[in-house]
Amino acid sequence: MNTTAHSAVQAQQEIAEEFAFFSDWSERYQYLIDLGRQLPPFPDECRTENWRVHGCQSMVWLVPSGDADKMHFKATSDSAIVSGLIALVLRVYSDRPAAEIVATEPQFVQSIGLAKHLSPTRSNGLAAMLAKLKGYAAQAMS
Length: 142
Known about the structure:
Blueprint: H1 8-20, H2 25-37, E1 60-67, E2 70-77, H3 80-93, H4 98-103, H5 107-111, H6 114-117, H7 120-141
Antiparallel strand pairs: 1-2
């Protein structure tokens, strides 16, 4: 995975450029799975109901840390493709100020064609994960 881009907008542009290299969706799914495999290890003690993202068909856990100046997220899933989605979400939103997190729309979902190629349950899960992450950021700002 790339190191953190200078801004969430830049991270989204880099993701779009990376996905543009692949000619079909089977290659893009494989790339997503590979990205998910590169997620850092997730502590077992964080796999609790308290950190679970509801609305996802697969199991997803999302743990925030930091403060309004710089929020960090760690997350994992029991699904290979969802883990890849998590990797993309973390690239765009982790290690950023809470205000930037709240203000950043997930344009990469549209720009790489994910919106058309995810099942409805995965789309709902991605939306739930983004809502939870933005909720944590909004909470840090208050």
